[in-house]
């Protein structure tokens, strides 16, 4: 856990999170970053000293469309996007997936805390390494045997589906193996780790007193 510096103005030091004892690889006014010992997961706090470019922090449907349209540019997909209340602060919690080359996925989990003239993003970046696709293959085989998905012309029918809009087919939508119900079966999978780490960050994050005195994001 890194400590607050006393300040009357919002800064990167106004937010405190657990660093899990990982090696710190960056420490500047815009970003603090740590890497896990296996060098497969990056944790960062990012401070943006400018008005957030978000369309809203109140309407989750608008936010999901906003993030969905951004991530498909990278051929990715939306796994989660929710509004949560974290110690009186309105926070946007997201998880995205982005395909790696030649195989595998990188998962990006974030807690975005917007204010009127600045914002913070606490981010987890977890990549598949080594043998990829094992979670997908095992769950797809199980669901195929149970008749919950079927063989299609190019892929399994009913396998890929945006979690909030079944009609959205662009990019690489979430698949059924990526639901939280399977995390316990695959605790070492990067998505499982990203979700678990986000929960720990939510529980242990601390907000500096100066943040209670600045204007919140109003939209």
Could you explain the architecture of this structure?
With 219 residues, the chain is of the alpha+beta class.
Question: What's the helix and strand layout?
Answer:
Elements: E1 15-16, E2 23-27, E3 31-35, E4 41-48, H1 60-71, E5 77-86, E6 89-99, E7 105-114, E8 119-127, H2 134-145, E9 150-151, E10 156-157, H3 190-204, E11 206-207
Antiparallel strand pairs: 1-11, 2-3, 3-4, 4-8, 5-6, 6-7, 7-8, 9-10
How are the strands ordered across the major sheet?
A: 2-3-4-8-7-6-5
Derived from helix and strand composition plus strand pairing, the structural class reads alpha+beta
Low-confidence stretches: none
Radius of gyration: 18 Å
Helix-strand topology string: EEEEHEEEEHEEHE
Shape: globular
Count of beta strands:
11
Distinct helical segment count: 3
As a percent range, the share of helical residues equals: 10-25%
Q: Into which percentage range does the β-strand content fall?
A: 25-35%
Mean pLDDT equals: 93
The biggest sheet amounts to:
7 strands, antiparallel
**Separation, N- and C-terminal Cα atoms:** 32 Å
Question: Any key phrases for this structure?
Answer:
single chain; 219 residues; alpha+beta; seven-stranded antiparallel β-sheet; two-stranded antiparallel ribbon; 3 helices; 11 strands
